[in-house]
Amino acid sequence: MSTTPPQQALTDDTRSAAAEHTAGDGAFGWLRALGPRGRRAFAGAFGGYALDSYDYFTLPLSMVALSAYFGLSSGQTGLFTTVTLVVSAIGGALAGVLADRIGRVKALMLTVITYAVFTVACGFAPNYETLLVFRALQGLGFGGEWAVGAILVAEYASARHRGRTLGAIQSSWAVGWGLAAIVYTVVFTLAGDDLAWRIMFWTGALPALLVIWVRRSVHDAPEAAAAREQSAEKGSFTAIFKPDLLRTTIFAGLLSTGVQGGYYTLATWVPTYLKSERDLSVVGTGGYLTFLISGAFIGYLTGGYLTDKLGRRRNIWLFALLSAICILAYANIPSGANTLLLVLGFPLGFCMSAIFSGFGSYLSELYPTAVRGTGQGFTYNTGRAVGAVFPTTVGFLADSWGVGGALVFGAIGYGIAALALLGLPETRGKELT
Is residue 294 one of the residues assigned to a domain? Predict the structure, then answer.
């Protein structure tokens, strides 16, 4: 029984709330409000997702060289993305269950190790079939890292700042993408295409260094860990399909499918579009991607701020509409107008990334602590798997429509996302513990 007088307890709570409010003021108040343990968790999740992005983009950036090396059709190269995203659904679901059962940090380390090992293995593939298998296995780790890292940080963040905190985590995807584009430009300039694509995959060993630091420095949020341990249904797949959560699971899965179908269509095919249909050199492609990636980074941060100000649903609705418009405009720029293509890359990257900023906070808030990892891991990565149909469809349509013409298929995904929001509640301001 507590011996603290009620009046004293109230005073302590008031002081604590005031301290949190003060810490949360200013441009980086959300980061100060996390506290020392929360900031270490943020650093681990940020680094993990950045390197996840880096390892993912080793393939799209090497797609033209791989296609020439193995003599592949557009449909076969599109299949790389499909198997990665489909298997990532399995990896994400498993990682979510593990996060609820063994803890967020341990699950995070397992996902990082998995995607790093199999990215490196891709560089040793002797044929198309082997590379396809290694890329699929890479998807096991790729699928789980974001969901686990997002939950880890969400449980440290306050309701007031959760959107921008998770938006900042999401921005690390652009950091990894940018790093991959820089390495691609250097490697493909200095080495011949037949060797350069292998070197790109071998650089995927970088995440091993992060795992060492995470193991020593990062811990689960104490309150969330305690709440998770007290539940009899922690990490239960059946729980997220029970009547009280079934509607949430279905519509959250549709939301993820639409947004990721649109996003991965662009992420997979824009480098090929720039190089094969706009006739840009390696350095030229890297320059155009710089505008796209810069827009993406700012979009993640802006979307994180807006998801706290406007709410989760309004932020996603807004950028679903703007992303669809940008895709249609980008894919229909006349030949020879490459300057306009360069300029439009910034708003395209901005909009297709800002829509993701609310995902980490939104999916975390839709599920209770005991099955938060399971629910978020399943819905986000099921969306990845089903959304994988979009880039594959573009691959097969590209032979007759051209890559630019087929890119408009990605706009359909954003329409699906907007409709899915009709079945989900607003969760801004919800406490997680």
Answer: yes
